[in-house]
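Bug #77: duplicate submission created two jobs. Keeping one. Sequence:
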Amino acid sequence: MRMALEGIKVVEVSTWVAAPVCGVLLAEFGADVIRVEPLQGDPVRGLLPRGSSVEAFNPWWEMWNRSKRGMALDLGTPEGRQIVHRLAAQSDVFLTNLRPSVLERAELDYEKVREISPRIIYAHITGYGTQGPERERPSFDALAFWTRAGFPSVLGEPDAPPVALEGAMGDHPTGGLALAGIALALYVRERTGVGQKIDVSLLGSGCWVNGVDLQWALAFGSDPPRFPRKQAINPLSNSYQARCGRWLRLCMMESDRYWPAFCAALGRPDLEGDPRFGSHFQRAANREALISLLEEIIATKDRDEWAPLFDEHKLPWDPVQTMTEVAQDSCVLANDYITEYEHFGGRRVKSIASPVRLSETPAGVRQGAPEHGQHNEEILLELGFTWDDIERLKEKRAIL
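Kept job's structure:
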């Protein structure tokens, strides 16, 4: 079966995570993605679990770079730049997250790459956008996406320290937005023959993902109200701890609709007629009393005992799961959100599958992530270099 992006060639000159996330999504829909990294290797190669040896398997490098081919070269040399120029000349997409000045020094800015390949789709992921005084400011998603876009101001208890971003939470959606931009640009090129540049930033992505609260500020000129858990405006959209110590989350946004069934599930039909809680607005006005009461009731049973009762009454809720619980979740497994494949050397690898599903041209892992410079010779030969050329490039330290 032909894959969705089969025949599309991508050169990815990137570092860390956001652009590689986009690259792996492209690769697993069939694009030939060539990941170019420096001679010293991408910093992600050094991310290993605490206590691991240098030779340990790196699951994060694998997740963000599987299904690609890999090259290691020095963009500071004319020869290294020439190789990437020749790659760009034969590619449909140029994907990068290097800073503008770095790209200009390497002669890989949009203007230069467009000269080489006028029909190229040039996707540039930055921290703070390509305009304004901070276009050169280096960043990570913990900064530009999370902190700068205001997530800590709306999450957690109001008086608690800022909630920190955990593990590439901003890089993943930003890479997905870049994928969407590339797909749109490829569609436009198919119709018009015109290539174009795509700009996606961690800050812009953060503003979009945090859009509900940012929209409040735009509409009303103030920060959205923030309440501690024990004062949640809607007690039926809140978190509670069961007797076993595990937490569950209720999400009954239309609380009047669910209130009778919720009282029945709790085994407290008497609450339905309690005048303090007779409507959404009355429950909001008496929320501290209701939250305290619900805490007491939910603490009388284990979470696994509440599960069938809430499900029987068709209440919107979910368990607050640990990562090991997510990895074993029946819904996750039934939908193949976890994939398994054979890596180089026979290792079986479990990893997160592409979140985008196409019924007729599905994504799939094509191979493990490349070793450092694994495909240098293979790709150079495809570009027309000879073995003598490759030897000279190695002598000049232009390639690994």
